[in-house]
Write a structure and sequence with these properties.
- The complex is a heterotetramer, with 2 copies of chain A (about 150 residues) and 2 copies of chain C (about 90 residues).
- Chain A has about 150 residues and is α+β, with helices and mostly antiparallel strands.
- Chain A has a single domain, classed as Molybdopterin biosynthesis MoaE subunit (Aldehyde Oxidoreductase, domain 3).
- Chain A has 3 helices and 8 strands; from the N terminus they run E-H-E-E-H-E-E-E-H-E-E.
- Chain A has a 4-stranded mixed beta sheet with strand order 1-4-6-2, sandwiched between helices.
- The longest helix of chain A is centred in the middle third of the chain and has 18 residues.
- The C terminus of chain A is likely disordered.
- Chain C has about 90 residues and is of the alpha+beta class.
- The relative contact order of chain C is 0.29.
- The chains are: A alpha+beta (about 150), C alpha+beta (about 90).
- The interface between A and B is medium-sized, with 30 and 30 residues.
Chain lengths: ~150, ~150, ~90, ~90
Amino acid sequence: MMSYVTRDRLSVERLLAEVSAPERGGTCVFLGTVRNGSEGPGVTAIEYSAYEEMVEAEFGRLLADAGRRWPEARIAVRHRLGVIPSGEASIAIAAAAPHRAEAFEACRFVIEEVKRRIPVWKKELRVDGTETWVDPSGHPTARPHA
Amino acid sequence: MMSYVTRDRLSVERLLAEVSAPERGGTCVFLGTVRNGSEGPGVTAIEYSAYEEMVEAEFGRLLADAGRRWPEARIAVRHRLGVIPSGEASIAIAAAAPHRAEAFEACRFVIEEVKRRIPVWKKELRVDGTETWVDPSGHPTARPHA
Amino acid sequence: MTATGTATIRVRLFARYAELVGRAEAAVSVSLPATVGDVVRRLRDEVPAARALPERPLAAVNLRQVKLDARVEDGDEVALLPPIAGG
Amino acid sequence: MTATGTATIRVRLFARYAELVGRAEAAVSVSLPATVGDVVRRLRDEVPAARALPERPLAAVNLRQVKLDARVEDGDEVALLPPIAGG
């Protein structure tokens, strides 16, 4: 069975192949990439961990929800886990639909829901050797045992 | 000088390379592909023609406008011209920004403005050998000399 | 400050308009001051097939979309653009 | 129809919560009927380090997010989830 998670580099071309078809004229792709954080010392990589069984189940439910809202859209998504270097993608979403509005809306819906529903956590690995769990509110949480 | 038009297949990877950077964590890509139209006989390809000098000038102005609205975004766009088979992309846009909202908005802005400002025209080439200029309102215009 | 005299304007036609008129290019002369609308009217007068064009087409002067009341000068390139269908 | 008796619940901890408690998994027993909130309280009673967890963490039962007043049954897997930061 196809998995929504991978430890390999994400391939946009592969996702596009999963959603494209001649009747779907508009395709929107979103890539989330590991940023070189602007606050504090430079982030060299982020370590992504997850509750993997739930990630699979929740992505299935999320795409089913999107399919009900945009029945003509076809959506593919892949979340990378493990240590991801700065500049590489952690998530890729492709949504193809007959018209561009649906493609944009479905793609945006999926990334917003990912942030809300998909149980994945990030730990920033910094140049100076420190590690910080990323709080989704944007404020890094000091690691108590570090 | 880089051109915004090409007669070759569009490469998403190449566009991504033009916009990605470690400080831009969200990237939105839009691909417009030639559809196998649902009305009437099947479209096998679309022939794209353009006022090429103006396409270049207008894309430059359009990206400058987008740059003023989303100063932290970096945007790349390529429009393919000539005969494009059904299922292949005619336009590719990539917008990368520090945050995903800007990436989505800038990408959407560019494709909407393309539809309004970039002087490109489509002629549908159909299975039965007929050709039809595409009216942007969605109603094909009978070709008077066909 | 308004230029006077006669201006030679290069007119370019694209896509369906080029097919309708049977050519992609023409040169017309207009007395200054003149507008893009004057250029369109002069083209329709001088090139009979150009009467198939709409009276108020989308137009550009020197690679920039303009309204039909925009001024033209000698040497300008006026383009008549069918409804845009890019993307 | 409410189950009674004692239920054994597998509790899983992730990311920062696993670090705080020093383990990724625990089993707790609760008297039925019981809620996810009861499981959290029982965990905090039985595992001292679990007191570092918030009293009302995000939780899932059997791979689905639930509120803390959701019922648990024998054999359920309860997961305590730090604020989600995917994407």
